[in-house]
TrEMBL record:
Residues 522-576 are annotated as: Disordered. This is SpaA-like prealbumin fold domain-containing protein. The keyword Chaperone does not apply. The chain crosses the membrane at residues 692-712. The lineage of its organism: Bacteria, Bacillati, Bacillota, Bacilli, Lactobacillales. Keywords: Membrane, Secreted, Signal, Transmembrane, Transmembrane helix. Residues 530-547, 554-571 have a biased composition (Acidic residues). It comes from Vagococcus fluvialis.
Length: 720
């Protein structure tokens, strides 16, 4: 070849060229003649390095795991690529390093496929091999990304809550008592927050959720369940966020994990459960009782004290149904409580709804109230206990406005009753020459009575009014005694009967305490009809209405206004006396004995009359065979015996013989003498003698009367 630079190029290929690399052009410089230059050209097999990188399917970041394993197969030869393991043994398994990579050096020309033997922890195994070619076109390094999907899991919550499912019925003295039974049943509309308990980190090193982060919020369905969306492998906890009103929100943190169950399980499941308790109820009836302190001015002095021993019932207004069955009827009794230190307290669990409290037993001394005190037990929040305070002026729910409004306890009124009675006096009417006619026809105004309690302590004193009525007022349940202490006037006999009154809420009974005889019984359960004062004067209505009609045209505006006010008068209960106490008039008897002045011989058939202090003739009669004249029915007063017809053979003596009836049943005995008729001289002497005797009798009578007056004045002075 001529001197100079020449280029030697390969212009053909050996057989199986797909395994060889082309020889590069060679530059030769010929400088001498005959110079021999030897060149060597070697054909090489095509080889390339291969890097396998495990990557996360979502983040496309390396899966930092050194436990992923692969096998690589030459599809042309059907042989698996092998290597020496750490022990020098030949193996076809290739394992990723801590970077999630596998590096294969100088893999000869060919068509290969990669099969995953073991997926990284937390990931799913590849189901299809990944193919690649070694053909010298990759600048010596083939990089293959092999992605894996993360295994995930769901959590299912089952939530139940206490629900009234049945009712137990018990018989009581107040009727059937319905008691609710509660049990756990699926609960809808309960919301939970799902939080990460620890950092939720996937194999690529990505932190999906930090510890404490809110992951999701879920709510239970009709079956009381929810199932979460797919969650990353890791530790979580559920915490109740909200629940239907009335259910107590639990503060517990419910731990659960989403576990990795292998490379062939794409979605695992976890189950958790929780129970909710139904709220408790506390209904407080605030109660006071009237208490009798004593009596002042014949009126009861009353104070209020904290109630003791009064029974209240709690009623469900609309009743309760379950699955179409009526378990509690309308207005069914669902609770019984007794007052203690001023409160009756209902405690327990009750379904939501409208209720009311009502008194069942007020005891013997107090009037039971028929009033219903409404209380709603429909919860408005999730507190553990609903408290309702019932007062007379309203119900305070959960102490709302409790300290901003006046509160008036319910007051049990004492049972009070009046005992009216009528007082009538006996009077006497003179029917001349016949005697006195006695009748009970006078109102006993002015008579005085004393009322004592069961301990015989005086508590009331009354004076009969102008209508003849006395009223023991404001008597509570118990036993009482009363009697007359003073009559209307001194002509009447004091009634010494001790009357016993026994008062209950059902009846008022009055007895003669000595004999035990029932005098009268009043039914206290019957309310007397009310009438206005105008109705009480109904008998005068017709005449008065005519008079009013006549004067209406001339009436002034003032009169019209007064008429209107009168028409609006309050109705009053008429006073009807329960019984009548009668005062008998003092009466006594008078007996006159008529005898001969000289020998004491009794003189029959003497005409005698009795006159009163006004000289009116009470009665006339004649002495009997024993010389006596007696008359029994003489009211208290001063009288005279007077002779109006002398016995035969005797001189008449018209000198009055005075006497006085002072005490009831008193018998006054008097004597009167007569002188026989004689001649003129003896008659004159006899008349003189009779005059002397008459004067003597009058003097003696005057002296006796003076002594009596002095005695009574002295007694009156001593009493004052």
């Amino acid at each position: 070849m001529a001197n100079g630079m020449i280029i030697i190029c390969k212009n053909n290929q050996p057989s199986k060229t797909y395994l060889l690399l082309s020889v590069a052009d060679m530059l030769v410089d010929i400088t001498e003649d005959g110079q021999i230059i030897e060149l060597t050209a070697t054909d090489k097999v095509i080889r390339e390095d291969v890097k396998l990188i495990k990557k996360d399917d979502e983040s496309h970041l390396n899966i930092l795991s050194k436990d992923a394993q692969f096998e690589i197969k030459n599809l042309q030869t059907g042989l698996k690529i092998t290597q020496k393991d750490a022990l020098g043994n030949e193996t076809s398994i290739f394992t990723t390093n801590e970077k999630g990579e596998i590096l294969l050096s100088k893999l000869p020309y060919g068509h290969y496929e990669i099969s995953e033997v073991k997926a990284p922890w937390g990931y799913l195994q590849l189901t299809k091999p990944v193919g690649f070619f070694v053909d010298g076109t990759h600048n010596g390094l083939i990089t293959i990304d092999i992605t894996n999907k993360q295994a995930k899991g769901t959590v299912t919550m089952t939530k139940t809550g206490e629900t009234a499912i049945s009712v137990e019925t018990k018989e009581t003295e107040y009727g059937n008592l319905h008691l609710f039974n509660f049990a756990q049943k699926p609960l809808k509309d309960v919301t939970f927050d799902i939080f990460a308990r620890k950092n939720i980190v996937s194999g690529d090193g990505k932190v999906h959720h930090k510890a404490g982060d809110l992951v999701t919020t879920l709510t239970t369905d009709e079956l009381g369940q929810f199932t979460s969306e797919a969650l990353y492998i890791g530790s979580y906890f559920a915490k109740e966020k909200s629940a239907p009103n009335g259910f107590i929100i639990k503060e517990d943190e419910i731990d659960f994990t989403i576990d990795y169950e292998g490379q062939n399980v794409p979605l695992t499941s976890s189950s958790i459960s929780a129970e909710n308790n139904w709220n408790k109820v506390k209904v407080i009836v605030n109660k006071e009782d009237e208490n009798l302190v004593g009596y002042e001015d014949n009126a009861a002095v009353i104070e209020t004290i904290p109630s003791e021993g009064k029974v209240f019932g709690l009623f469900m207004r609309e009743g309760f149904e379950k699955d179409g069955d009526v378990l509690v009827p309308e207005n069914g009794l669902v609770g019984i409580a007794t007052t203690k230190e001023g409160q009756a307290i209902f405690e327990g669990q009750y379904p939501e709804g409208d209720y009311y409290a009502k008194e069942l037993n007020a005891g013997n001394d107090h009037v039971i109230s028929e009033k219903e005190y409404p209380v709603s037990l429909t919860p408005t929040d999730n507190r553990e206990e609903q408290e309702s305070n019932i007062f007379d002026n309203g119900t305070f729910q959960n102490n709302q406005n409790f300290n901003r409004m006046a509160r008036y306890p319910i007051v049990n009124k004492l049972f009070l009753t009046d005992v009216p009675f009528e007082k009538i006096n006996e009077t006497s009417k003179l029917e001349e020459k016949t005697g006195y006619k006695f009748e009970f026809n006078e109102l006993g105004e002015g008579a005085e009575f004393e009322l004592r309690n069961s301990e015989q302590e005086p508590i009331q004193h009354l004076v009969i009014d102008e209508n003849g009525i006395g009223i023991w007022k404001d008597l509570v349940v118990g036993t009482y005694f009363f009697n007359e202490t003073k009559t209307s006037n001194d002509s009447l006999v004091l009634d010494k009967t001790v009357y016993r009154i026994e008062v209950t809420q059902e009846t008022t009974k009055i007895f003669d305490n000595e004999t035990g005889t029932l005098i009268v019984e009043k039914d206290n359960t019957v309310t007397p009809e009310l009438e206005t004062e105008s109705e009480k004067e109904d008998t005068e209505t017709t005449e008065e209405s005519e008079e009013v009609a006549t004067t209406t045209e001339e009436s002034t505006d003032v009169e019209t206004e007064e008429s209107t006010n009168e028409s609006e008068e309050e109705a009053v209960a008429p006073v009807e006396p329960l019984f009548t106490i009668k005062n008998k008039a003092i009466r006594g008897s008078a007996e006159l004995e008529k005898s001969d002045v000289s020998d004491g011989k009794l003189l029959p058939d003497t005409g005698i009359r009795i006159t009163d202090e006004h000289g009116k003739v009470v009665v006339e009669g004649r002495t009997d065979s024993n010389g006596k004249f007696t008359f029994d029915e003489l009211p208290k007063g001063k009288y005279n015996f007077q002779e109006f017809d002398a016995p035969k053979g005797y001189l008449i003596d018209t000198t009055p013989v005075p006497f006085e009836i002072k005490e009831d049943g008193e018998i006054i005995k008097c004597q009167m003498t007569n002188v026989k008729q004689v001649d003129k001289l003896r008659q004159t002497k006899a008349e003189n003698t009779n005059r002397l005797i008459s004067v003597a009798v009058l003097v003696l009578a005057a002296c006796s009367l003076s002594l009596v007056v002095i005695y009574y004045r002295k007694e009156s002075f001593n009493q004052n």
